[in-house]
Automatic annotation (TrEMBL):
SUPFAM superfamilies: HesB-like domain
Alphabetized PANTHER family for the sequence: IRON-SULFUR CLUSTER ASSEMBLY 2 HOMOLOG, MITOCHONDRIAL
InterPro entries referenced in this protein's UniProt entry, alphabetically: ATAP (IPR016092), ATAP_core_dom (IPR000361), HesB-like_dom_sf (IPR035903)
Protein known as: Core domain-containing protein
One Pfam family hit: Fe-S_biosyn
Region called Disordered, residue ranges: 57-83
UniProt biased composition (Polar residues): 64-77
């Protein structure tokens, strides 16, 4: 099975410091809470180019590509940011209650993360998942490999398949909570995919990349 290759990273924080960018992302989160149509669907956290890729550089979202029924899904929350962490990081977001900060991964995804950590000989290697603006439906996922947890990150891992670290920042977390990370192997290539996002409307774009916020 081919492993994702790592490229040069662009610092994440370089893309999210502008007040306008933060306010746009938070507007999208507020729309979820209020269950009303967003004023602007192009309101997400900007991010660097993806470096976790198989055939595609983007994580795939589609309800038609859900994790298989035989796939075991599990994870545990190792760390969540505090209000003080968010203030220190200058991130305008709210800390989710523990019962809401949920994110699952299939055994296949955890095994792939294990393989990547083994290849890098680094148990701290993690997959960072971020929601950004873009695509024909307004939202899309991008991922990168990292070994540094930021102050506003939620940290998940598989309870038995380790190391299998996932980091999700405080702005992206409300937009992916309850989702499942899977790793799919197909004839055209292999890639990590976000499946069954409760915040996503319908099956997303036919391109299999972009998705629309459910309101």
């Amino acid at each position: 099975m081919p492993l994702p290759r790592q490229s040069t990273l662009v610092p994440l924080r370089a893309f999210v410091r502008s007040s306008a960018s933060r306010q746009q992302c938070l507007k999208g989160i507020a729309n979820i809470k209020a269950s009303s149509p967003p004023d602007n669907l192009n309101s997400r956290r900007a991010f660097s180019s993806s470096i976790v890729r198989g055939a595609s550089a983007l994580a795939d979202h589609s309800s038609r590509q859900q994790a298989g029924p035989k796939s075991t899904r599990s994870s545990r929350l190792l760390h969540s940011p505090s209000e003080r962490d968010l203030q220190e990081a200058e991130i305008e977001a709210e800390v989710l209650p523990v019962h809401e900060a949920t994110f699952q991964m299939t055994d296949a995804a955890a095994q792939q993360l294990q393989a990547i950590s083994g290849r890098d000989n680094n148990p701290n290697t993690a997959l960072r998942i971020v929601v950004e603006s873009g695509g024909c439906h307004g939202y899309q996922y991008r991922m990168e490999l990292t070994s540094k947890r930021e102050l506003d990150d939620y940290h998940f891992e598989h309870p038995s398949l380790k190391p299998s670290n996932i980091y999700i920042d405080a702005i992206s977390m409300p937009l992916v909570k309850g989702s499942t990370l899977d790793f799919a192997t197909e004839l055209i290539g292999s890639s990590f995919r976000i499946a069954e996002n409760p915040q996503a409307k319908g099956s997303g774009c036919g391109c299999g990349v972009s998705w629309e916020l459910k309101v």
